[in-house]
Amino acid sequence: MNKIIGKIPLKLIFIIPFVLQICGTVGIVGYLSFRNGQQVTEDLANTLINEVTNRINDKLDNYLKTPHLINEINVNAVQLEQLELDNYKSLESHFWQQIQLFDDATYIYFGSSQELFIGTGISSGNQVEVGYSDSQTRTFSTYGTNKLGKRTKLMSAIPDYYLFTRPWYLAGKQNQRASWGEIYLWAAPYPNLALPAVYFEIADTGFGMSSEEIKLIFLPFERLNHHKYQQSEGAGLGLAITQKIIEMMDSKIKVESEIGIGSKFYFELPLLIQNIQFPLIKESTNKKKQKYKLDSNFSHKYPLNILLAEDHIVNQKVITKIFDRLGYKIAIVNDGLKAVQILKKQKFDVIFMDVQMPKMNGLDATIEIRKTHQKNDLLIVAMTANVMEEDKKACFTAGMDYFIAKPIKIETLLEILTKIVNTINPRSKS
Length: 430
Hints:
Blueprint: H1 2-7, H2 10-79, H3 88-99, E1 107-111, E2 117-122, E3 128-133, E4 140-145, E5 151-158, H4 167-175, E6 184-186, E7 192-194, E8 197-203, H5 211-216, H6 238-248, E9 254-258, E10 262-270, H7 298-301, E11 306-309, H8 313-325, E12 331-333, H9 336-342, E13 350-354, H10 362-369, E14 379-384, H11 389-398, E15 402-405, H12 410-429
Helix pairs in contact: 2-6, 9-10
């Protein structure tokens, strides 16, 4: 042993421990870097999942606010007797105006227990059309309309239309509230597919994939390399994250691919509707109308000068009708700048302020108003469909006093109005 050691150069004996230390250090550093890289990648993936999920939810929420808003407006209109459900001309005129106010709505309709169908829609040529059917003809007739909303020529007439068998009517009757029905074909005057879901599809004309490769593409860090072409780029996380997001939304992504032809990815997201309670139109022999009780003497007991800053015509009509029933005659402006300007000429006790308006939004208008009108002089009520805590905080920070979520409910408006009169009345006596 001593002979062997004696033959080893002294220089080598000194170098070997340092080399071993360096190799060990590099190995440990490499292992820790690999582990840290995995953790960082996982953290990034989770961050991306949360961010993308939130953005998708925000987009869908904004898109789905339209039918909720339309439903609430029409419910309020029925309760306030603005709409008579047995007057098809009134319904037709109302829907004709309403469909043009909502860019995301393509058809608004109503079906009654008397087998009456009334609806309006936007055609493929961007024209407003009305649909009509009753128990006598049971023919689904679609008419064109002029600039005044009057019927013009008959576009189509589809016989054997049975309202009581339609999926949307059956779903509403069974659940007694706003509900999604089954998928069904709507063929008046042109074929359409009514879907209670959003369908997404993306296709390419790339390399395509085999069935074995399709099994791998959703695995984290998996990248397909087609050797005779270019190498794949990226970290291999995109599809894994996408799949997880879609599964979190109770759906499943599917793939169809053919080598040399291309691939198609598609999935469907079911739509959930808010639990909006509709007033039930009950059959009765005396045909008494249901009324929402509003005290017409309220304004005499609690006189108020009210300004409504709202750019949406339908909301203006609904809110004005409520105040009319309470005995108030209110002033209306349709943007924040006009709200600021009118206060220089007239005195108001309270402003019902829409947050999103042209020229000047409600927040900026409130900030300007608070420079000259303090809270003991003027109360401001925020009205907005944005109901997150940060949205409410922004309203109160700007100087608003109360907050009402859109679509506006009669009972909520009355509750806020009661708080206002209780605030102003003691103030006026002091």
